TrEMBL record:
Record-given protein name: Type II secretion system protein GspF domain-containing protein
Keyword Transmembrane helix: yes
Keyword hit for Membrane: yes
Superkingdom, natural source: Bacteria
Length: 237
Protein backbone atom coordinates (compact mmCIF):
# COMPACT_ATOMS: atom_id res chain seq x y z
CA UNK A 1 0.00 0.00 0.00
CA UNK A 2 1.39 3.41 -0.95
CA UNK A 3 1.74 6.35 1.46
CA UNK A 4 -1.12 8.23 -0.21
CA UNK A 5 -3.44 5.21 0.14
CA UNK A 6 -2.52 4.81 3.79
CA UNK A 7 -3.24 8.52 4.45
CA UNK A 8 -6.64 8.23 2.77
CA UNK A 9 -7.46 5.13 4.83
CA UNK A 10 -6.55 6.89 8.11
CA UNK A 11 -8.64 9.94 7.13
CA UNK A 12 -11.63 7.76 6.26
CA UNK A 13 -11.36 5.91 9.57
CA UNK A 14 -11.22 9.17 11.52
CA UNK A 15 -14.25 10.59 9.68
CA UNK A 16 -16.21 7.39 10.34
CA UNK A 17 -15.29 7.16 14.04
CA UNK A 18 -15.28 10.88 14.76
CA UNK A 19 -13.45 12.51 17.67
CA UNK A 20 -13.58 10.85 21.03
CA UNK A 21 -16.06 11.82 23.74
CA UNK A 22 -13.26 13.25 25.84
CA UNK A 23 -12.13 15.53 23.02
CA UNK A 24 -15.69 16.74 22.45
CA UNK A 25 -16.17 17.45 26.15
CA UNK A 26 -12.82 19.22 26.32
CA UNK A 27 -13.79 21.46 23.40
CA UNK A 28 -17.14 22.29 25.01
CA UNK A 29 -15.44 23.17 28.28
CA UNK A 30 -12.71 25.25 26.71
CA UNK A 31 -15.05 27.45 24.66
CA UNK A 32 -16.95 29.05 27.56
CA UNK A 33 -13.77 29.10 29.59
CA UNK A 34 -12.03 31.19 26.96
CA UNK A 35 -15.00 33.55 26.75
CA UNK A 36 -15.07 33.93 30.53
CA UNK A 37 -11.33 34.61 30.56
CA UNK A 38 -11.81 37.34 27.97
CA UNK A 39 -14.53 38.93 30.12
CA UNK A 40 -12.22 38.85 33.16
CA UNK A 41 -9.41 40.50 31.18
CA UNK A 42 -11.74 43.30 30.07
CA UNK A 43 -12.86 43.78 33.66
CA UNK A 44 -9.25 44.01 34.86
CA UNK A 45 -8.50 46.61 32.20
CA UNK A 46 -11.47 48.70 33.32
CA UNK A 47 -10.31 48.46 36.95
CA UNK A 48 -6.79 49.48 35.99
CA UNK A 49 -8.21 52.48 34.18
CA UNK A 50 -9.74 53.73 37.44
CA UNK A 51 -6.28 54.44 38.91
CA UNK A 52 -4.87 56.41 35.98
CA UNK A 53 -6.35 59.79 37.01
CA UNK A 54 -5.03 59.24 40.55
CA UNK A 55 -1.53 58.54 39.25
CA UNK A 56 -1.62 61.64 37.05
CA UNK A 57 -2.83 63.79 39.97
CA UNK A 58 -0.03 62.41 42.16
CA UNK A 59 2.51 63.22 39.43
CA UNK A 60 1.23 66.80 39.32
CA UNK A 61 1.49 67.11 43.12
CA UNK A 62 5.07 65.81 43.16
CA UNK A 63 6.01 68.14 40.29
CA UNK A 64 4.45 71.10 42.12
CA UNK A 65 6.53 70.32 45.23
CA UNK A 66 9.69 70.13 43.13
CA UNK A 67 8.77 73.40 41.42
CA UNK A 68 8.30 75.20 44.74
CA UNK A 69 11.57 73.82 46.10
CA UNK A 70 13.49 74.78 42.97
CA UNK A 71 11.88 78.21 42.83
CA UNK A 72 12.71 78.89 46.47
CA UNK A 73 16.33 77.87 45.88
CA UNK A 74 16.63 80.08 42.79
CA UNK A 75 15.18 83.08 44.64
CA UNK A 76 17.51 82.46 47.57
CA UNK A 77 20.43 82.52 45.10
CA UNK A 78 19.51 86.11 44.21
CA UNK A 79 17.75 85.67 40.88
CA UNK A 80 14.70 87.69 39.92
CA UNK A 81 11.27 86.13 40.11
CA UNK A 82 10.99 85.69 36.35
CA UNK A 83 14.43 84.10 35.98
CA UNK A 84 13.83 81.87 39.00
CA UNK A 85 10.52 80.59 37.62
CA UNK A 86 12.01 79.92 34.18
CA UNK A 87 14.91 77.92 35.61
CA UNK A 88 12.73 76.05 38.10
CA UNK A 89 10.17 75.03 35.47
CA UNK A 90 12.89 73.76 33.13
CA UNK A 91 14.26 71.51 35.89
CA UNK A 92 10.94 69.79 36.70
CA UNK A 93 9.37 66.93 34.71
CA UNK A 94 5.68 67.85 34.58
CA UNK A 95 3.05 65.37 33.32
CA UNK A 96 2.21 67.97 30.65
CA UNK A 97 5.43 69.86 29.79
CA UNK A 98 3.54 72.41 27.65
CA UNK A 99 1.19 73.49 30.44
CA UNK A 100 3.67 75.83 32.20
CA UNK A 101 4.91 77.59 29.07
CA UNK A 102 2.36 80.45 29.34
CA UNK A 103 3.43 81.02 32.96
CA UNK A 104 7.10 81.15 31.93
CA UNK A 105 6.27 83.54 29.10
CA UNK A 106 4.28 85.75 31.46
CA UNK A 107 7.16 85.82 33.96
CA UNK A 108 9.63 86.72 31.20
CA UNK A 109 7.46 89.43 29.62
CA UNK A 110 6.01 90.87 32.82
CA UNK A 111 2.55 89.36 32.35
CA UNK A 112 0.03 87.97 34.81
CA UNK A 113 1.92 84.98 36.23
CA UNK A 114 -0.73 84.02 38.85
CA UNK A 115 -3.43 83.83 36.18
CA UNK A 116 -1.19 81.67 33.99
CA UNK A 117 -0.44 79.34 36.90
CA UNK A 118 -4.15 79.00 37.70
CA UNK A 119 -4.90 78.26 34.05
CA UNK A 120 -2.20 75.57 33.95
CA UNK A 121 -3.34 73.87 37.17
CA UNK A 122 -5.28 70.63 36.51
CA UNK A 123 -8.55 69.89 38.27
CA UNK A 124 -6.93 67.09 40.28
CA UNK A 125 -3.41 67.58 41.55
CA UNK A 126 -3.27 71.33 40.90
CA UNK A 127 -3.40 72.43 44.54
CA UNK A 128 0.30 73.29 44.55
CA UNK A 129 -0.03 75.59 41.53
CA UNK A 130 -3.01 77.32 43.16
CA UNK A 131 -0.96 78.01 46.29
CA UNK A 132 2.02 79.11 44.23
CA UNK A 133 -0.19 81.56 42.34
CA UNK A 134 -1.43 83.03 45.63
CA UNK A 135 2.15 83.35 46.90
CA UNK A 136 3.27 84.98 43.68
CA UNK A 137 0.45 87.52 43.86
CA UNK A 138 1.23 88.30 47.50
CA UNK A 139 5.00 88.44 47.00
CA UNK A 140 5.17 90.41 43.75
CA UNK A 141 2.05 92.58 43.98
CA UNK A 142 1.82 93.25 47.71
CA UNK A 143 5.55 93.14 48.34
CA UNK A 144 5.91 90.19 50.71
CA UNK A 145 8.96 87.92 50.85
CA UNK A 146 8.34 85.60 47.90
CA UNK A 147 11.12 83.16 48.78
CA UNK A 148 9.86 82.69 52.34
CA UNK A 149 6.25 82.25 51.21
CA UNK A 150 7.15 79.67 48.57
CA UNK A 151 9.33 77.77 51.02
CA UNK A 152 6.39 77.54 53.42
CA UNK A 153 4.15 76.36 50.60
CA UNK A 154 6.67 73.64 49.72
CA UNK A 155 6.70 72.45 53.33
CA UNK A 156 2.89 72.35 53.51
CA UNK A 157 2.68 70.51 50.19
CA UNK A 158 5.18 67.89 51.38
CA UNK A 159 3.22 67.34 54.58
CA UNK A 160 -0.05 67.06 52.64
CA UNK A 161 1.51 64.54 50.25
CA UNK A 162 2.80 62.42 53.14
CA UNK A 163 -0.68 62.45 54.67
CA UNK A 164 -2.24 61.53 51.34
CA UNK A 165 0.14 58.58 50.92
CA UNK A 166 -0.67 57.41 54.44
CA UNK A 167 -4.39 57.51 53.63
CA UNK A 168 -3.76 55.68 50.34
CA UNK A 169 -1.88 52.94 52.19
CA UNK A 170 -4.78 52.52 54.60
CA UNK A 171 -7.22 52.34 51.67
CA UNK A 172 -5.18 49.70 49.84
CA UNK A 173 -7.16 46.93 51.55
CA UNK A 174 -10.46 48.45 50.42
CA UNK A 175 -9.19 48.72 46.84
CA UNK A 176 -8.04 45.08 46.85
CA UNK A 177 -11.40 43.95 48.23
CA UNK A 178 -13.25 45.91 45.55
CA UNK A 179 -11.16 44.30 42.80
CA UNK A 180 -11.72 40.85 44.27
CA UNK A 181 -15.49 41.32 44.50
CA UNK A 182 -15.60 42.70 40.97
CA UNK A 183 -13.81 39.62 39.63
CA UNK A 184 -15.96 37.07 41.45
CA UNK A 185 -18.65 36.91 38.71
CA UNK A 186 -16.03 36.07 36.09
CA UNK A 187 -14.54 33.49 38.45
CA UNK A 188 -18.00 31.97 38.89
CA UNK A 189 -18.34 31.70 35.11
CA UNK A 190 -15.00 29.91 34.91
CA UNK A 191 -15.97 27.49 37.67
CA UNK A 192 -19.33 26.80 36.04
CA UNK A 193 -17.63 26.18 32.70
CA UNK A 194 -15.19 23.81 34.37
CA UNK A 195 -18.08 21.81 35.83
CA UNK A 196 -19.73 21.52 32.43
CA UNK A 197 -22.73 23.74 33.26
CA UNK A 198 -22.26 26.03 30.25
CA UNK A 199 -23.24 29.31 31.96
CA UNK A 200 -22.47 31.44 28.92
CA UNK A 201 -24.85 29.41 26.80
CA UNK A 202 -27.59 30.31 29.28
CA UNK A 203 -26.58 33.97 29.51
CA UNK A 204 -26.41 34.50 25.74
CA UNK A 205 -28.98 31.92 24.71
CA UNK A 206 -32.28 33.62 25.50
CA UNK A 207 -34.06 36.67 26.90
CA UNK A 208 -33.97 35.38 30.48
CA UNK A 209 -30.22 34.85 30.35
CA UNK A 210 -29.66 38.23 28.70
CA UNK A 211 -31.74 39.90 31.41
CA UNK A 212 -29.69 38.17 34.12
CA UNK A 213 -26.47 39.18 32.38
CA UNK A 214 -27.57 42.81 32.06
CA UNK A 215 -28.66 42.93 35.71
CA UNK A 216 -25.39 41.37 36.88
CA UNK A 217 -23.22 43.72 34.83
CA UNK A 218 -25.24 46.73 36.02
CA UNK A 219 -24.98 45.73 39.67
CA UNK A 220 -21.27 44.99 39.35
CA UNK A 221 -20.69 48.34 37.67
CA UNK A 222 -22.69 50.18 40.34
CA UNK A 223 -20.66 48.49 43.05
CA UNK A 224 -17.39 49.51 41.41
CA UNK A 225 -18.60 53.07 40.92
CA UNK A 226 -19.80 53.39 44.52
CA UNK A 227 -16.58 51.91 45.95
CA UNK A 228 -14.47 54.23 43.83
CA UNK A 229 -16.57 57.21 44.93
CA UNK A 230 -16.10 56.32 48.61
CA UNK A 231 -12.34 55.94 48.14
CA UNK A 232 -12.07 59.31 46.36
CA UNK A 233 -14.01 60.99 49.18
CA UNK A 234 -11.70 59.42 51.75
CA UNK A 235 -8.64 60.61 49.81
CA UNK A 236 -9.95 64.17 49.61
CA UNK A 237 -10.87 64.33 53.28
Amino acid sequence: MTAAAMALAVLAAWLWAGPGAGAVRLERLSRPGRRAAEEMNRLRQSLAGFSRPSRRAEAWRVASIELCQGLSAELAAGRTAGEALTRAVSAVAFPDPQALRPAVAAARDGGDVPAALLAAAPERGGEGLHRLAACWRAGVTVGGGLSVLIDRVAVSLREAELHRKDVAAQLAGARATARLLAGLPALGLLMGAGLGMRPLDFLFGGPVGMACLAAGVALDGCGLWWTRRLIIRAERA
